[in-house]
Request: fold
Amino acid sequence: MPLRIPDKLPAVDILKQENIFVMDNSRAHTQDIRPLRIVILNLMPLKVTTETDLVRLLSNTPLQLDVTFMKLASHTPKNTPAEHMAMFYKDFEELKDMKFDGMIITGAPVETYEYEDVTYWKEVTGIFSWAKTHVTSTLYICWAAQAGLYFHYGIPKYPLAKKMFGVFVQKPIDPLLPIFRGFDDSFNMPHSRHTEVRREDIIKDGRLSLIAESEESGVSMVMANGGREIFVTGHLEYVADTLDREYRRDKGKRPDVDMPVNYYEGDNPDNKPVVTWRAHANLMFSNWINYYVYQETPYDINKIE
Reply:
């Protein structure tokens, strides 16, 4: 697909090696097409990894996407070079007067904190509010999903005794929703979190629709405002070794982290991970772009409200 991303972004070379067609801004400017504007607020520690994971999934559509990366002014990442942030990311202040067809807000390693104790809570909730009037559809992932549900709808989070860690079977509650077009009766989703939102809190709020859940991992997908807000508590964007890297990082250091379940061949961490979620990850992202962004956004992007 003609995916427009910033010149020299590391993801470009990685994805070209995977035979994924990407187009840097220099070439894209020669094409007279109204691209869909997608902004990504990347709160994950390893920015380059998350950029690549998300761009890979966004590439699975014939529509032209113009991707912009947003950062917080109130937080300086420790694991990404300042040069990378300066070259490829823009502060919210630079983007607040623009409108976007779609937005993705990632997870963040702050879930064990109370929301109001997160140092950038005020800025990130300002962005949550801004998205309601400046973005056609916003996809909230993991911590962002919990934070968005709390900020917009007052849904609390609850600590878990053990990290929800592994790959879990999910079931669509309404399989006819466009977000699930092409899905099987069940699908797998990686989870990596220390907190949860609960079914009973979601279903008693008439503004929210619980659209997918798991007997093991609980609430997985929630929708509001006809798809203008979609909250995903897991990580369909994860690649094969993401959970493995997290496990090796925390092994022996945290008593609340066990081996990721339903992940390694034979449940043996000496074996390679088995990827069982990639097809549905591609489907979900392409369905989101097609049905909740492209088919809902006005041609004149300034008419988003």
User: Anything to note?
Assistant: The radius of gyration is 18 Å.
